């Protein structure tokens, strides 16, 4: 197995932004995310607990199936739904912490002014893209939540349990896409207001300079 030289290994790790402060606490929400980003961060705990609930339901299903030979109708679809909304929300959570994926070939060699311009441009492009996706999400919700006569009827799974999870998930996705658009607009505005030298200091993508 190939092993990197100590200097190369240290350089590779220095490129990874820290998720935790030295005292073990999560890194704070960057100032460029604004109040909106801090609100997103606060409610993220609910969706994290959703994954724990999904795990508990799976354990319950295993117990019911293999101990009492009485499997449930709802466990599989419910855990899938809980996991799905958690993953959908994760995109908004990453944006609120300015941790979305970047291609950094140019970004890393750019000076403070160019980095600020890139941050503004990236945020604007992401806001426009999220807005288009939100519009597509609304078209999807129209089919998943309404009948042709305009009455409300959520799309169901079509199984024996027949839960309205598909309709609820598509509505939730629409709301998240709207929130994602707002978050990128906030980021763009705050990057415009920030001084070039403060952009990386305030951003969640700041490097760990050990």
Walkthrough of the structure:
- It contains 6 helices and no strands.
- The protein has helices at 6-14, 34-66, 75-96, 112-145, 165-193, 199-202.
- The chain starts with 5 loop residues before the first helix and ends in an 8-residue tail after the last helix.
- Residues 7-14 and 203-210 have low confidence and may be disordered.
Total separate domains: 1
DSSP E strands, number: 0
Q: First CA to last CA: what distance?
A: 27 Å
Quaternary arrangement of the chains shown? single chain
* Alpha-beta content class: mainly alpha
Low-pLDDT windows of residues: 7-14, 203-210
Helix content: 55-70%
Mean pLDDT across every amino acid position: 83
Order of secondary-structure elements: HHHHHH
Helix run count: 6
- The geometry reads as globular
- What percent of residues are in strands? under 5%
Mind summarizing the main beta sheet?
none
| Radius of gyration over all CA atoms, rounded | 22 Å
């Amino acid at each position: 197995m190939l092993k990197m030289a100590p200097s190369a290994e240290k350089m590779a790790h220095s490129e990874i932004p820290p998720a935790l402060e030295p005292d073990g606490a999560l890194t704070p929400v960057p100032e460029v995310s604004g109040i909106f980003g801090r609100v997103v961060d606060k409610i993220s705990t609910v969706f994290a607990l959703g994954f724990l609930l999904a795990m508990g339901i799976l354990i319950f299903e295993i117990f019911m199936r293999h101990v009492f030979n009485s499997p449930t109708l709802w466990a599989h679809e419910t855990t899938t739904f809980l996991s799905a909304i958690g993953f959908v929300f994760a995109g908004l959570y990453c944006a609120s912490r300015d941790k979305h994926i970047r291609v950094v070939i140019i970004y890393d060699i750019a000076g403070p002014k160019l980095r600020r311009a890139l941050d503004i441009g990236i945020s604007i492009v992401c806001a426009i893209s999220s807005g288009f996706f939100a519009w597509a999400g609304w078209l999807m919700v129209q089919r998943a939540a309404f009948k042709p006569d305009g009455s409300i009827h959520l799309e169901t799974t079509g199984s024996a349990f027949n839960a309205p999870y598909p309709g609820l998930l598509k509505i939730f996705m629409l709301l998240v896409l709207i929130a994602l658009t707002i978050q990128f607009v906030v980021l763009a505005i705050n990057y415009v207001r920030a001084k070039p030298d403060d952009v990386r200091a305030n951003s969640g993508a700041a490097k760990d300079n050990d």
